[in-house]
């Protein structure tokens, strides 16, 4: 019997029919790993967006990656954090465009609007236009579908930023309310909120409104049982410096608690900036968006996020009656935009700018004492000293010039009769004629 040799494995592979799924398999195996999405500047524009002084174009910009999302989503994130967190963007744009047309026809300005809420809404619309370059032209020339898409993308960015910040503060805020070197009793879980709010001594004291006495046992029981509800316009103790308030002067320490400062840095600069850790981190949201000063909207946003992080509510909802977050946010915005408190709000924003953006306060970084630039600037501020220095310099220059002129004149002047001076010897030979 003849034996036939079995073909090798290589021959089997060569003679086998092609696999129709081979390309798909290869694509899946060679596909690059998914990179974590981080907020980036999709527009490439890091100029002024209406948040205080215009950022300088000098110096290195933030590190950025290639854009993967619609630039409008990027602008929507900053819009929700710094301008208006709770907003129906489509209605805002529709009303803003209609109002702008009416104002142009009637020849009036924003200051001529009689309704304060209408005036504030139009200011928010204009801030949105300034936030996104070319947005106004796009809205005026686009179709209804384009306008709907713009509103949808901005709304998406605002919602996603709020969700990211809610998730980030949920864990770290436990570290901030824990006394140094101590532990909370009972301890609180970092990822579970059911034991927070009025159910825990540490969080309950911070969330307690200033018009309620947390030290009263009956008050604590009523708050924990839900019999006594807290509305959004009842501001909690967490807003005040050292968590103490002065009933005779409510503005004393208001919105100056360390908890708010930590949360603001965590959201806008970087999580590591809270503890001032000297390590390189990716660019913060403020740097990415060219933000150089604190806004009223950003303060209200941070306070709302901190208040929710301390609560026992698991999901951030604008209609949640337990936290009443939207009413809390709007009460801050209404109070800080009231002209009655203009002086207090201005002083508060100046204090916040020193905490978050110290390099922007005063317009430039202070010079080191004793340096050349500092001494030059000091001398520039003393005109009398400058005149003395300039006069001495001119006197020395004048004396030097006079001496040089005199030396040249002496060398060219011929000697007079009876003078002991000798004429200058010339290198050129001269022929003298006979005397007559």
Describe the protein:
This protein is mainly alpha-helical. Helix content is 50%, strand content 0%. It has a domain at 71-356.
Show the helix and strand layout.
Blueprint lengths: L8 H7 L6 H9 L40 H12 L6 H18 L9 H16 L3 H7 L2 H34 L23 H7 L9 H9 L32 H12 L15 H4 L7 H15 L14 H12 L5 H15 L15 H9 L2 H30 L24
Helix pairs in contact: 3-7, 4-5, 7-10, 7-12, 10-12, 12-13
Beta-strand percentage?
Answer: under 5%
Query: Percent helix among the residues?
Result: 40-55%
Overall pLDDT = 79
Major sheet summary line: none
Give the overall shape: globular
Global structural class: mainly alpha
The DSSP helix count reads 16
Task: Write down the Rg.
Answer: 37 Å
Task: Give me the strand/helix succession.
Answer: HHHHHHHHHHHHHHHH
Number of strands: 0
Task: Quickly describe the structure.
With 436 residues, the protein is mostly helical. 50% of the residues lie in helices and 0% in strands.
Features:
DUF6698; disordered C terminus; 436 residues; disordered N terminus; mainly alpha
